[in-house]
Structures are given as C-alpha cells and as structure tokens.
Design goal:
By secondary structure, the chain is mostly helical. It has three helices and no strands. The chain has one domain. It is flat, with a radius of gyration of 15 Å. The chain starts with a helix and ends in a 16-residue tail after the last helix.
Length: 71
C-alpha cells in the first residue's frame, strides 16, 4: 500500500476499514457495491456536527437513519 493510500485508509472509521478488508475477493479486488457508504457519510456528518456543537455553532440533534439496498 502506498503511503498516500495508507493515510487515506487510516482516516476511515473502523467499521469502514473492516468492510474494505472483508469485501476483498481472492484476487484482492474490492466489490465497491457492497460498501455501506451511507453509514460513512452519516459518520462524517455526525463528527462535523460534534465539532460545530463544541464551538457553539450548532445546537440541534442528528440521528441518521440509513438503509443499504446493495447493488
């Protein structure tokens, strides 16, 4: 893995790293249609809203409901 790829991989939450590793085929290819990207987006939105709440810029709540249809 290149240093750039590793640094990108390291920024992902644990559940997405596990999905990437477990979604690999024998040939090493990743079936991207099986990755739950909606959970990844919800995770990063929640992190951003936590930062904004800490700064006093956001006072709402965020409780995402995701659904994975697959491909």
């Amino acid at each position: 893995m290149t240093p750039w790829s590793f640094s990108l991989f390291a920024t992902l939450p644990d559940f997405m790293r596990m999905s990437l590793v477990s979604a690999q085929s024998i040939e090493g290819e990743v079936n991207l249609s099986q990755l739950e990207t909606e959970k990844l987006i919800a995770h990063f939105v929640a992190e951003e809203l936590k930062r904004r709440k800490a700064k006093g810029l956001y006072n709402g709540t965020f409780s995402p409901v995701t659904h994975f249809f697959g491909y």
